Amino acid sequence: MTEPGPDEVMDHLVQVSFTVMALLSRAAAAHDLSLTQLRALAILRDRTPKMAELADYLGLDRSSVTGLIDRAVKRGLVRREASEDDGRAVRVGLTDQAHRLAGELGAEIATLLAPLTHDLSPAERNRLGVLLGRMLPPER
């Protein structure tokens, strides 16, 4: 097996990205969520950011995030709370219902993604995880 060239690496990365996004969209749709709503739930699993911080995480403008959160609040998935460190700011977090949903979605997504790495050895899967982690921007 020959080593892929830079163009082939980029092509494979894009193809895998599209495949993963399609699988994530399928999992989200099964729960009547958009891909953006799924991303928001994933971000909120382990933090309660201010609305502006959530907008930054999602790469969206604040008005779009406000609408996104309004819809999630109506569904009972997200709660708003006053920020303790800034009286003007609002923090958002998941409700218990949303934490349960996030757990279900995590299991479903793991099942959907498993075939992508099925043919890799444990060492290859570990190396892939390390390499993908190095490609991510530093956590804020």
UniProtKB/TrEMBL annotation:
What Pfam families does the entry give? MarR_2
Coiled coil: which residue ranges?
Answer: none
Top-rank lineage group of the source organism? Bacteria
What InterPro entries does the database record attribute to this sequence? HTH_MarR-typ, MarR/SlyA-like, WH-like_DNA-bd_sf, WH_DNA-bd_sf
Q: Which residues form the HTH marR-type domain?
A: 6-137
**SMART domains annotated for this entry?**
HTH_MARR
Identification of the protein by name: MarR family transcriptional regulator
